[in-house]
Amino acid sequence: MLCARTVFRCFRAVEHFADRLTGAAGPYFVGLAVVLITAGALCFFTVILPSLPFSLLTVPICFLIAANLYLHYLWVCTMPPGFADEPENPPDRTVAGWLWGKRRGRMQNTTISPAYVGNCAKCGSDKPERTHHCRICKRCILKYDHHCPPSGINQCVGLYNERHFVLFMIYFVLSTACFSGFGYQHFFLALGIYPYDWSYFLPPWVFVLVYLLSSILCLAVAIMLSFHLWGIALAETSVESHDFPAYRAKAKSRGTTFVNCYDLGKRQNLQLFFNVGPLGHSYLTLVLPLRISPYTNGRAWAKRHGLSRHQGIDASDEFTDDEEHSIIP
Question: Transmembrane region positions (predicted)?
């Protein structure tokens, strides 16, 4: 037992060191991401776009995709994720700026229940349900999903910036797929396979490296995006997707069935997440790079009719932040 606890402490020390390292390196990841995205855009707009047919159609579409890519990246990096110890007003009421989507009226035919509020043992702040304490930020984040320095965001993904995070991934996959799909002939030309001269001002080796990186990242981010979209359709955050299997097992051991109280059906879950459709903004906000606040301020949640908590488990069964990251009970 002593040996196990020693190993556990070593793991925790390594974990905290990694937290400090990734937190300190976050700004450099952001800089690297900006450089790589800009290199890809430069290669696409100077090499690939001039050769595309129907320029009156393709040029505006490509610029719209690029605008969404850059601006959603800007929003996810600069918009606070939502802190439990701050005022309850959403950012569009407290943060000055431009490109805010116009607020819609109150949602109809949806039950919005006040969140249960606890107290964080780590920072002492009030902790509404779906809130978790981030070890790197050292604050409680509303609807915490994950802390994201390695992918170039350098902050938590939470209630107020998760929409922009997912839309950034969508437009990243779309843009890199277009780069790979429309640029393969230029890739072969840069490699010298075609018997023609390279007539662009960018060196061919730069285009080759960017093309390869774009193709690899397209696949990697598409996999991550699929995971997130499936979780959104099930009304689960990344943290909850790890917790719910344990809840299902515990409910099954008691002869009951676990039911996620936030799950209103895949279509409505997606509408609530993106705040579009009959319950929110126009679907056009999915193709326009606007800043959109969520349907809630994190102190109330849309829930299944008749459920105020998850069915099949008790409040005492729900994991705390310490339990979620422990190796030994």
Answer: 28-48, 54-76, 165-185, 205-227
Return the domain boundaries, the chain.
1-302
- Between the ranges 59-63, 151-155, 319-323, where is the mean pLDDT highest? 59-63
Q: Give the model confidence (pLDDT) of 198-227 as tens digits.
A: 889 899 999 999 999 999 999 999 999 999
Q: Please report where in the chains the tokens 């490109």 appear, as a residue.
A: 99
Interatomic CA distance for residues 37 and 175, integer angstroms: 10
Q: What is the pLDDT of residues 286-327, one digit of tens each?
A: 999 998 889 998 999 999 988 888 888 887 767 666 544 432
Contact between 187 and 207 under an 8 Å Cβ cutoff? The reply is yes
Which ranges constitute the DSSP H helices of 183-306?
184-191, 204-233, 238-253, 266-274
Residue 183 carries which DSSP code? S
What is the pLDDT confidence band of residue 70, given thresholds at 50, 70 and 90? very high
pTM over 0.85: yes
Residue 196 φ then ψ, to 5°: -130, 160
Specify whether the CB–CB gap between 260 and 236 falls below 8 A. Answer: yes
Q: CA separation (Å) from 208 to 8, 183, 193, 213?
A: 45, 10, 12, 9
Question: Could you give the CA distance from residue 102 to residue 132 in angstroms, rounded to a whole number?
Answer: 29
Residue-level length of the chain: 329
The answer to whether the Cα torsion of 89, 92, 94, 95 is positive or negative is: positive
Angstrom CA distances, 16 to 20, 38, 233, 321, stand at 6, 33, 32, 15
- Count the neighbouring beta carbons within 10 Å of the beta carbon of residue 186: 22
SS3 215: helix
Strands 139-141 and 132-134: antiparallel
Tokens of 71: 């601006």
CA–CA separation, 54 vs 38, rounded Å?
Answer: 24
